[in-house]
């Protein structure tokens, strides 16, 4: 059963500008393992975190660092949630996450399906 679907699009150059303008944003949005990635990868991960929030109904109080995009040995992305995001996901009956990331030119996109 599908609990929620979220889609987000991020303009890479705009996101890069925001990271330069507000240096603390990198630490607020990303866990240490994500912070050293290139801007395109960070933009896609931010899109994924936004898509997760949308799939959960965008409740207030979720911590961005409680949602992380990880890659398996074959390079396939997946979502790992903890803390505030896991609490909301559990309350909505989410048992499994499906994630698709894409980059094309200056655009990074993510689609998330939360399955119960």
Spatial order of strands in the largest sheet:
1-5-4
Q: Pick out the low-confidence regions.
A: none
Derived structural class: alpha+beta
The major β-sheet equals:
3 strands, antiparallel
Order of helices and strands: EHHHHEEHEE
Q: Provide a count of the helices.
A: 5
How big a fraction of the residues is strand?
25-35%
Output the radius of gyration.
13 Å
Task: Identify the overall geometry.
Answer: globular
Q: Would you report the number of β strands? A: 5
Integer average pLDDT: 95
Topology summary:
Blueprint: E1 2-11, H1 12-21, H2 24-29, H3 32-35, H4 39-55, E2 67-71, E3 77-81, H5 83-91, E4 96-104, E5 107-115
Helix pairs in contact: 1-4
Task: Give the structure's gist in a few sentences.
The protein is of the alpha+beta class. The chain is built from five helices and five strands.
